[in-house]
Write a structure and sequence with these properties.
132 residues; mainly alpha; Arc Repressor Mutant, subunit A; 2 domains; two-stranded antiparallel sheet; 2 strands
């Protein structure tokens, strides 16, 4: 994903996202809005919503994403403004756990790829292995 260029237009879109969520009353997972709904209302590509939300995070506004029913029984899918510092901290920890798991999975795939390459007599670049 490429970072969007920070300029007047992108900052205006980011501000529009915040104002939209406030007008919608998106302060809980139950009132969350999907990226598609946000993009349509603000007039930006759906793929830009994540990065525009990051601009708001840089300004201290925590807009978090919910992917549906959680263990706490709350239902909702989309983005909403989180105002409780404890919830923002819990969200941060969950993101970190997810990132660590993705990193570990990628490392295992890299190991498998290395093992698969070792079994070849010809390298991907076309060179023959001397000691196959």
């Amino acid at each position: 994903m490429t970072r969007i260029e920070r300029n007047t237009k992108t900052e205006a879109h980011a501000t529009s996202i915040y104002e939209l969520l406030v007008r919608h009353g998106a302060y809980s997972p139950e009132r969350a809005m999907t990226d598609r709904e946000i993009a349509k209302a603000v007039g930006c590509p759906q793929r830009d919503v994540i990065e525009l939300v990051e601009l708001l995070l840089d300004q201290g506004i925590a807009i978090v994403a919910s992917c549906g029913s959680g263990g706490d029984g709350k239902v909702g899918r989309g983005r909403y403004i989180e105002r409780e510092p404890e919830h923002v901290d819990a969200y941060s920890k969950a993101l970190r756990r997810r990132a660590v798991n993705i990193f570990l999975r990628a490392r295992r795939f890299r190991k498998v790829a290395r093992l698969m390459l070792e079994g070849r007599s010809v390298e991907p670049n076309g060179q023959r292995r001397l000691f196959a």
